[in-house]
């Protein structure tokens, strides 16, 4: 029986990795080549989440579900090794605790229980540059990204990433993966 009430203190447990080395091969190698190309082009890159443990995905998913009243706290299935109690004295308290978790995690989109992050096939990247980005694609063709925006939402950059096998998810400013999902 889960006995520790849900709340933001759970958000430091089961942390996501920001290490490229936690990605699955061959995606890891493709990401490294893309990052090398970005670095050679003087782009500033900050790595967010790479691998997300299944326990973290569970906490994020159900916190979001409860906070958005998509599931009743009592209906959340237990997960072995995660001794969380989603049921507070009132439903409003349960929702508030879940909402505090959503805020602490910084969740912008509904988290999935199984995703490219839990499979080691996704990376969140903040990418920015000043002026034109001189970059080589995976075939060694030297290109210039000379249009805005000068960040990871630039669609010309998406094509360069795709040449390496690192695909951009269009509706998430940071998310890149093995297949664009």
Instruction: Please report which band the strand proportion falls in: under 5%, 5-15%, 15-25%, 25-35%, 35-45% or over 45%.
Output: 15-25%
Order of helices and strands: EHEHEHEEEHEE
Structural category is alpha+beta
Strand order of the biggest β-sheet? 2-4-8-7
Task: Please give the number of β-strands.
Answer: 8
Question: Biggest sheet, open or closed, and with what strands and sense?
Answer: 4 strands, antiparallel
| CA(first)-CA(last) distance | 35 Å
- Helical content stands at 25-40%
Overall mean pLDDT score?
Answer: 96
From the alpha carbons, calculate the radius of gyration and give it in angstroms.
Answer: 19 Å
User: Which shape, going by the Cα principal axes?
Assistant: elongated
User: Number of DSSP helices?
Assistant: 4
The residue ranges in which pLDDT falls below 50 over 5 or more consecutive positions are none
Could you please describe the fold and organization of this structure?
- 29% of the residues lie in helices and 15% in strands.
- It has helices at residues 27-40, 54-67, 91-105, 155-164, and strands spanning 4-5, 44-47, 84-85, 122-128, 133-136, 142-145, 167-168, 175-177.
- Helix 2 (54-67) crosses helix 3 (91-105).
- It has a domain at 25-51 and 121-177.
- The protein is of the alpha+beta class and 181 residues long.
- The radius of gyration is 19 Å and the shape is elongated.
- It is built from four helices and eight strands, in the order βαβαβαβββαββ.
- 31% of the residues are buried.
